[in-house]
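Lab notes, practical 5.
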Amino acid sequence: MATAHKQSGELKRVAIVVLSAAILVGFSIAYGAYKKVYQTNVSLNEEQIELYLPTHSSYDDLLSIIDTSSWLIDHSSFQWVASIKNLKNHIHPGRYIITDGLSNNDLVNLLRSGNQTPVNITFQRFFYLSDLAGHLSYRLEPDSISFASYFTSDSVIASTGLARQTAISLYLPNTYEFYWNTSPQQFVLRMQREYESFWNEERRLKAEKAGLSEIEVSILASIVESETKNIDEMPSVAGLYLNRLKKGMKLQSDPTVKFALGDPTKQRIYTNDLKVNSPYNTYLNEGLPPGPILMPSIQSIESVLNAKDHNYIYMCAKPDYSGYHNFAKTYNQHLSNRKKYQRFLRKEGIR
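Output from the prediction step:
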């Protein structure tokens, strides 16, 4: 009996040792797994970085991008967590903000969710759609050729209800949020929504009261913006051109000649330039040109819709560097203002 009792005690001790060892091993495995999942695995020298995952990327493409990075501490543990959470079948292209101190769980959840961070896109005062395309290609995934070819395709222009010469008026300069992998088609659809939202009933009624269509407002706004950079002067300039239109006078706007010459940023206009044969030359043609000469800002559009009511039909740059103008009701007053400006140029040595 004593021997049997002794053997039983030994068996219990062995069982306890084995069980304890199993518990320790289990705990060790569990703790190792916990560390792989929740321990910090992103170390940055800055607060955050951007991770770009191109359209049509696979899981292997993602691993290649991450493998070339220096911010992931343990690549094997990341792949282990990614495998458990089936990241391979939940790849979402886009722009992701990676912050310092993320765990594998945080990182995999971020990528798996597709919760990418939008890009702020600001654009203004472009002369051509190709300029807008180039600007967008620096901030969004598609290249400039993809944007430009889509913007100018006959089918896309037709779908907007605009003409080739007026297509640029669809794109209202502002700051917008877009996902990095926004396609040209998605971009245009967004611009259509913004355009339709902008042209509400109140603005349409103002345009109608001024005797202009929405497109004509944009065309005149582009001229106003080209004539003055001072927002507070835009309504006065708009009022002047509206007066000329009502009187059947030619607009005689220098910026339209620059556009007709194919050189919108040309500094000086000479007498010969005024003879260029183009529907955009408002020294030769009455009324508005066939399309905007640049992408008009919301401020310049509003200046046409809320133009100042006055009797001015002439303007000339002030003899200073303010960018403002002297306005005149008669040609003689205009000639006097022009002589002052010419004397200023000669004094400044500008020819």
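Observations recorded by the TA: The chain has a mean pLDDT of 91. The first strand starts at residue 48 and ends at 53.
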